[in-house]
Amino acid sequence: MNLTHASRHWILAVVGTFILAHAAPLLAKSPEPLVCEVAIVGGGAGGLHTAFRLGPILGSKVCLFEKEEELGGRIHDISYDNDAKDAPRIGVGARRIMETQTVVLDLAAELGLQLETPVVSADLIQARGRTAFGKEDFVSLYPGLPVKQDPSTDTETWLYDQLRHGPERGNAGLYPDFRSYVSAIVGKAGFDYLHDMSRFRADFEYDLDAPSYLDYLDEEWDVCCVASYPVGGMSGFIRGMEERARAAGVRIFKGEAIHGIHRKGQGYQLQSARYKVAANKLVLAVPPSAFPHLRGDVPARIAKQKPFQDIVGVKVATITQWWPYAWWKDIRNPAQPDEKGQVWRAWTTESCVNFIEIPMEASAAVQNVTRSVYDDDQRCVEHWEKLAKHSMKQVEAEIHEGLTQIFHQNGVSLPENVVIPRPLKTHVQIWPAGWHFLRAGATNSNAEIAAWSLEPLPGEPVSLVGEAYFINRSGWSDGAYKSSIQVLNRHYGLQLKGQ
Ligand SMILES: Cc1cc2nc3c(=O)[nH]c(=O)nc-3n(C[C@H](O)[C@H](O)[C@H](O)COP(=O)(O)OP(=O)(O)OC[C@H]3O[C@@H](n4cnc5c(N)ncnc54)[C@H](O)[C@@H]3O)c2cc1C
């Protein structure tokens, strides 16, 4: 056979490609061995806090593995121009700390974070075709609502008091779920009123365990008063803890998802793409939604337990928008002439926009940015997720309609005419498990779940850390910190405040 130069070249290229393709798996680097005293899986607030506290006593014996390129998990700040270094940022997850959250405030002081406490202004609410500034203005729209018997308090607080302190509280476990408990205590009208006045709807729409939710409510009711915002966003906590953990010698691996965890001898073996890790102790600082992606006997033995199965994640959407100018800055409650009259939050049952937050803290306000949608209503979250995959233009058009419905000619706020421009940029964030509760039929209390998470495999040095395992502080980063603190105090001999 007489082959031309070109065809010989071609055959060599094909044979070469074939050999390379088939030999590649053999040539791929096998995972590097790594030895750690404590392996922490997950670099959100809970996992990173654990590493940061262990750093001074164990240094490089602590390894932390985070699947994303950035630490922080549900603490995630983004900027208008992602490529611009040091550009101002805004949170698409956690944003603020309340006055009573001393664990987080103490941590902020320890890390030297600067906090802003803006004057919080007016809330605008829309339900049953009415728009008003106060929840009392809606009472007449709910015929059959129990008449409050305490003139010193408002209707919403009074209804919650009936749920929390009424004689049936002790029997809450006999009701199939929180919804039926609420309807039994304050009637259908009371249920509808509480649902519509709340900014968060999942609490009334998911099948939640009544005693667990009431225990959470007791603590949630104390979350109060002045809200603080870290300058530069909540990721200041993450940067501060990361810097100190690294300085203490902690080995932090980003972009390194753990795929499998096995018991091996007296210790554990973890696998990631690059490493085969041997560890004596484990801290699993990932929420339950991460478990289906973890192979091995350790996650399997935890996931089959009832306390684990009782935890339910609430799906949440936040949609952040940057604008050419602050079209909202003149919207106010005419009854409040001072700066407190400015509208900073609005919520509605009339559209999937649901809850709008307008940053008042200077470092965020200068960005002309709003959280235009904040939603945990199951159907709406699914809707935003689908729409965002299909067309961002439609997402923007629907938000435009929702915002117009709330702010334009609503009959109460001034100016009457509010024209909403086109946003410069829209970011849709779906949190598959934004926060956690216990599902109806749970057999453990919140306190029992927290105790179980300290040692879910009895006698083994494995702990679960995170907000998901500290239901009384559901939806707040102090849940993650408190969960971490209880593990550090119990298993690592620390004596931290704030458990
Ligand atoms: C929309 C929203 C608003 C909120 N607002 C506030 C607020 O204003 N104030 C406040 O205090 N709190 C707020 N929170 C709650 C707070 O953000 C969380 O409670 C807290 O950040 C949870 O931390 P965590 O460590 O428990 O979990 P996560 O943050 O979920 O961390 C888990 C980490 O594990 C990583 N991971 C998962 N699988 C693997 C794997 N296989 N290998 C390695 N790593 C893995 C994840 O990538 C993630 O980084 C808000 C939450 C949401 C969703």
Describe the structure.
By secondary structure, the chain is α/β, with parallel strands linked by helices. It folds into two domains: 32-83 and 235-307 and 441-491, FAD/NAD(P)-binding domain (3-Layer(bba) Sandwich), CATH 3.50.50.60; 122-224 and 314-432, Polyamine Oxidase, Chain A, domain 2, CATH 3.90.660. It contains 15 helices and 19 strands. Helix 2 packs parallel to helix 15. The longest helix has 23 residues, at 5-27. The termini are far apart. Flavin-adenine dinucleotide binds at residues 41-47, 65-68, 73-75, 93-97, 257-258, 285-287, 290, 293-294, 316, 318, 431, 434-435, 466-467, 475-477, 479-480.
Which secondary structure elements does this structure contain, and how are they paired or packed?
Layout: H1 5-27, E1 32-41, H2 45-58, E2 62-65, E3 77-79, E4 89-91, E5 97-98, H3 102-111, E6 115-116, E7 122-127, E8 130-132, H4 155-165, H5 178-197, H6 202-205, H7 210-220, E9 227-230, H8 235-247, E10 251-253, E11 258-264, E12 267-272, E13 275-284, H9 297-303, H10 306-309, E14 311-322, E15 343-348, E16 355-357, H11 362-365, E17 369-375, H12 378-390, H13 392-407, E18 425-438, H14 446-454, E19 462-464, H15 477-491
Parallel strand pairs: 1-2, 1-13, 2-10, 7-15, 13-19
Antiparallel strand pairs: 3-4, 5-9, 6-9, 7-8, 11-12, 12-13, 14-17, 14-18, 15-16
The structure holds flavin-adenine dinucleotide.
